[in-house]
Q: What sequence folds into this?
């Protein structure tokens, strides 16, 4: 499959598998062994890998397949050095930094709380109508 996406685009598991030459079941297995790999999951469980995830998977594949590390060896390496040192500067800085705290005005906060309450009300009414 030929994928013509920008470098910053999210990729499906099939696209990542094709790009790395690894079966999709292997990528799912690696997710269980390396908690640092955490693709976004949408409805139906469809995975979307960030560019950072793809780079980390590329490095894991290189260590496992080319340099013949064991899974435990790669886990230990990531734990000792950290993901940033492990993968290098190719990883985007926001991969490691927590989301910035946003200061909201009182008016914005009230609007958000009101919207949440409205959604709860709608959910309640829909639940009653379904039952």
A:
């Amino acid at each position: 499959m030929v994928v013509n996406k920008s470098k910053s685009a999210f990729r499906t598991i099939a696209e990542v598998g094709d790009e790395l030459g690894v079966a999709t079941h292997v990528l799912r297995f690696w997710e269980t062994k390396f908690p640092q790999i955490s693709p976004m999951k949408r409805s139906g469980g469809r995975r979307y890998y960030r560019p950072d995830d793809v780079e980390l998977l590329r490095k894991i594949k290189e260590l496992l397949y080319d340099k013949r590390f064991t899974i435990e060896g790669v886990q230990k390496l990531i734990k000792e050095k950290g993901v940033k040192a492990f993968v290098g500067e190719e990883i985007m800085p926001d991969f490691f930094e927590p989301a910035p705290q946003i200061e909201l005005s009182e008016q914005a906060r009230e609007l958000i709380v009101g919207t949440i309450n409205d959604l709860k009300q709608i959910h309640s009414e829909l639940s009653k109508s379904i039952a």
Q: What stands out?
A: DSSP finds five helices and three strands in the chain.
